[in-house]
Write a structure and sequence with these properties.
By secondary structure, this protein is mainly beta. It is built from 11 helices and 48 strands. Its EC number is 3.4.-.-.
């Protein structure tokens, strides 16, 4: 609540409600370099482990790509011409194939893609003959095949996908064909085909309580529902590598299309009309069907209710059967979950979930395999009768892993949901006789690899652990000044791995490592794309809250900077997280040996402009025992921020009068609260936040209570309620088409108007066509420009702000 200097406030009073039409701006060249880079490659291993695909992601798209025709229905954002998502999170523009054992010299085959094609959903065929992917163009998504031996790329012209709900497809076990969702409706321009004209929209309630979070892009009218069905309708079909097409079953709106391990049956989940106006498509009512490929006969195995009727509560689920899948170690056996408490986690119950199984031909009564006291969130099968079961209790903020054998559970591992120190990492899986991945479980031991988080930073590892007693054998770990991680286990005897490797000065690379001999072979080297940031200093900084809680963050300093040169302007960036355990809240997420990675959405890029950046600063909100974290939300935020500032000042890095606070989403909510309830910061940057919790009345983040149960809490936690106390300058940024739950663009607009009406200092930037996370290169460049100019204005010694502070009243 630092008072805005009189002169500056007067100057801004006449301009704070003006709107600029200058268009997109460009930041300095080194910040543009951050936008122009592409993220690191994604790799994939063939089933026989003899080929590795290296897939290069596309760079940030242009704003014209985001501005394409987009339809927002049922929680989906659809490109109606392509029948794909309008906003694909990651697609690829390059493809390199590396044969791992063909010669001593590493060979890289650069696959030339057709002009204008990017791709998604790459995978190898079971016989290792093909690499397939869904190629994206103006005409839609088509399946392509690359034959590894002949190096021939073929487009399957009959195989146009409807990828609106999913782009997943599946090879038959013998690689003779691909099962996919064929696009059936090429005339999707039916949005305004309402012959009867407008009709009234009528909604009514039932007797049951149906609290739901605040979602966007939902269906609103019967015409919406018709258009949703027209766009998402697909036909299950098989296509051979030669292009022969065979339709399977009937067209429908499919959530799941999955082959049984023996390839005799299809598991289908069809979304059932009438579609809901209150929940997203994945919560629509569904019909679960098993289709027999031989005669295409269908058997309905379940009718799943809409998520509208799901009880409230952090561990509640929709009553009835859910989460259907095929047992990967049996020829044709369905497995699913069913709640033992009618889905209501608020009911007192000894058991919460049950796991069921039913074998083909699905006529006998299903068999209950096991019942659990917590919700089952994962089943990793070992063989026909054994599995590793993951249970979760959000109420207790814990995860539990147990071994299922002989229909009984033996607990192996339990940790807090946010406890990274105890995380076992990735469990190694191997292909079984059906070509499905099941857990490698030799002599009661699991092979697993992970980051190895600890107080001293990440120490990636590979271990073999005995389940019954927890004894572990360390097989490999990163050493020296390198940060290395296991990507794949090629062989166990001798132990051969594919690892990624990087250091402070060396960009990430991929190696084939023989652990027994120590021989390492470079397979792929990522380019160094951030030459402008050479020499940037990075260090872990620990600090202590006033109640003794140990916290940390990662500090970035300009190349060559020393504290003898004096303090720097500082931007602190954070995201609040709730905890039930103080020890977990103190955990460190850091490695001193990681190569510098800078996202254009990260504040780290500002280090090149003379700023100290204190990133990923711990901002825990703790509620142990019966207390709830949010009961002291504001007090704990201020205590965290105050401790962080004290540390930076004591180090000689920061000047208390030149520190800003920034955050995205819930971090933006934190920013507005800190500006309203403390005098710690000179300015703030709040991106894509929600500031009025009465507009998210059925909960937010991990808050279980609704507005009517905790009215005063919702009001006290809402910075909108305290907009009169936000007397430091705040930059509000929001995507015009934010699809995240609760963070409507209206949230930023309303807070801006409140601050403006109360005489505060604020700037609102709405980024056209952007959602919750900004993507277009024009938006990202402008974002960096806005943030830099905001901080230069209020933190730099030569700024108008500092001149104004020296002006007497």
């Amino acid at each position: 609540m630092r008072g805005t200097p009189w002169l500056l406030a007067t100057l801004l009073l006449f301009s704070q409600l003006s709107w600029s039409s200058d268009g997109y701006q460009l930041p300095p060249d080194n910040l543009q370099q951050v936008v122009e880079q592409t993220s690191g490659p994604v790799t994939m291993l063939s089933p026989d482990k003899r080929w590795m695909a290296v897939m290069g992601p596309t760079p940030a798209p242009s704003i014209s790509e985001l501005a394409r025709n987009e339809v927002r229905l049922g929680g989906l954002r659809i490109d109606p011409e392509r029948l794909t998502p309008s906003r694909i999170s990651r697609q690829y523009e390059s493809l390199v194939m590396i044969p791992l054992f063909q010669s001593d010299k590493v060979i890289q085959l650069d696959i030339q893609l057709p002009e204008g094609i990017t791709y998604i959903s790459g995978r190898f065929s079971p016989d290792n003959r093909f690499f397939s992917f869904a190629g994206l163009s103006e005409q839609g998504a088509y399946l392509y095949l690359y034959e590894l031996e002949s190096q021939k790329l073929t487009k399957l012209k009959n195989a146009r996908l409807n990828a609106t709900i999913s782009s997943r497809y599946q090879w038959l076990a013998d690689s003779s064909a691909i099962l996919f969702r064929q696009a059936t409706n090429t005339n999707t321009d039916t949005r305004h085909d309402v012959k009867a004209g407008p009709v009234p929209l009528i909604k009514s309630t039932g007797q049951q309580k149906t609290p739901r979070r605040t979602y966007q892009d939902l269906l609103k009218t019967p015409a919406d529902a018709d258009y949703f069905q027209a766009l998402t309708l697909s036909q299950p079909a098989l296509v051979t590598p030669g292009g022969k097409l065979t339709k399977i079953g009937k067209p429908g709106v499919y959530g799941t299309v999955s082959l049984s391990p023996d390839n005799r049956f299809l598991l289908l989940t069809r979304l059932a009309a009438p579609f809901s106006y209150r929940v997203k498509y994945y919560d629509f009512a569904k019909e679960v069907v098993v289709l027999k490929l031989a005669d295409q006969s269908e058997k309905v195995v379940a009718l799943q209710s809409s998520g509208e009727i799901r009880p409230s509560g952090p561990d509640s689920v929709t009553p009835g059967k859910r989460s259907f899948s095929w047992h990967p170690a049996k020829a044709a056996s369905l497995v699913w979950l069913q709640s033992a408490d009618n889905g209501d986690s608020k009911q007192k119950a000894r058991l919460r979930d049950e796991l069921y199984q039913q074998d083909a031909p699905f006529a006998e009564q299903p068999t209950k395999i096991v019942a659990t006291p917590w919700r089952i969130t994962g089943v990793d099968w070992i063989n026909e009768t054994s599995a590793l079961i993951t249970q979760r209790s959000r109420k207790q903020q814990k995860l539990r892993l147990s071994l299922l054998q002989d229909n009984a559970l033996t607990q192996w591992h339990e940790r807090g949901l946010r406890d990274s120190y105890k995380h076992p990492g990735t469990l190694h899986k191997a292909l079984n006789s059906f070509g499905k991945r099941t857990l490698a479980f030799d002599g009661g031991k699991l092979l697993h690899y992970g980051l190895g988080a600890s107080d001293s930073g990440y120490q990636p590892f590979l271990k073999r652990t005995q389940i019954n007693n927890g004894d572990s054998q360390l097989l490999w770990e990163t050493r020296g000044d390198k940060y290395q991680r296991v990507k794949y286990v090629l062989n166990e005897q001798p132990l051969e791995l594919i690892i990624s490797s990087e250091s402070k000065s060396a960009a990430p690379s991929i190696h084939h490592l023989n652990v027994d001999t120590g021989e390492s072979r470079l397979l792929y080297q990522s380019p160094d794309r951030l030459s402008a940031f050479k020499g940037v200093q990075k260090q872990l900084v620990n600090f202590t809250r006033n109640d003794g809680l140990e916290l940390s963050g990662t500090l970035y300093l300009p190349a060559g900077y020393q504290t003898s040169q004096g303090p720097l302007p500082v931007i602190i960036w954070a995201y609040p997280r709730e905890f039930k355990d103080k020890s977990v809240a103190s955990q460190v997420a850091y490695s001193p040996n990681q190569y510098l990675k800078i996202s254009p959405r990260s504040p780290i890029a500002l280090v090149s402009q003379g700023y100290a950046v204190f990133d990923r600063v711990a901002m825990p909100v703790i509620g142990e025992g019966n207390s709830k974290p949010n009961d002291t939300f504001r007090e704990q935020l201020v205590a965290n921020a105050s401790a962080a500032i004290d540390k930076l000042v004591a180090m000689g890095v920061a000047d208390r009068n030149r520190i800003a606070i920034g955050g995205h989403s819930y971090g933006a909510f934190m920013v507005a609260n800190l500006l309203a309830h403390s005098d710690l910061f000179a300015a703030g940057i709040a991106r894509s936040g929600a500031y009025n919790r009465t507009l998210t009345p059925f909960g937010f983040q991990n808050e279980e209570r609704n507005f009517w149960q905790a009215t005063s809490l919702y009001k006290e936690m809402s910075p909108f309620t305290h907009a009169d106390k936000i007397d430091e300058p705040i930059l509000l940024i929001h995507g015009e088409m934010d699809s995240n739950s609760g963070t409507y663009p209206m949230q930023s607009d309303r807070l801006f108007n409140a601050i403006a009406g109360l005489g505060g200092t604020a700037k609102l930037v709405i980024l056209p066509w952007e959602s919750h996370s900004y993507k277009a290169k024009e938006s990202l460049n402008h974002l960096l420009w806005e943030q830099l100019n905001w901080l230069d204005t209020y933190l730099k010694p030569t700024s108008v702000a500092d001149t104004a502070e020296e002006t007497p009243l």
